[in-house]
Task: inverse folding
């Protein structure tokens, strides 16, 4: 698979999994189910049920701070989306449209009060990392 499609399926999987942890999770489930309906109509309902299972696993992983499971879920869905695109190259444009739609939904969900914010950082040597879920005011002792 070419790098552009790999990037697309990676972005799609990440967006879908992140959206499953928001109030807009049904939108992600319906959109991905719609993609499967175009290529494998007989599997669409099963895929939507799998997304429901993924949501349950994701919420438990986030509650337990299990970032590795969350990444495994993203990889799982990337593989499924990759196989879907390989099965029918015409679904690529539909996938791009769905990704754009879901990224907009994710951005809107991130603006909701009480949204979950996940941040990661690594500092090496004498560096410093400052992270904040909202406002950050840094003062130095100078």
Result:
């Amino acid at each position: 698979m070419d790098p552009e499609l790999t990037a697309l399926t990676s972005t799609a999987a990440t967006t879908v999994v992140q959206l499953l942890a928001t109030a807009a999770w049904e939108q992600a489930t319906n959109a991905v189910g719609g993609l499967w309906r175009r290529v494998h109509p007989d599997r669409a309902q099963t895929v939507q049920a799998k997304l429901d299972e993924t949501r349950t696993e994701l919420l438990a992983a986030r509650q337990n701070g299990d970032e590795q499971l969350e990444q495994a879920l993203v990889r799982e869905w990337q593989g499924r989306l990759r196989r879907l695109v390989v099965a029918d190259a015409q679904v690529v444009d539909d996938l791009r449209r769905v990704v754009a739609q879901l990224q907009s939904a994710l951005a809107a969900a991130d603006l909701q009060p009480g949204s979950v914010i996940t941040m990661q950082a690594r500092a090496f040597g004498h560096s410093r990392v400052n992270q904040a879920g909202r406002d950050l005011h840094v003062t130095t002792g100078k």
Q: What stands out?
A: The CA atoms of residues 9 and 78 lie 5 Å apart.
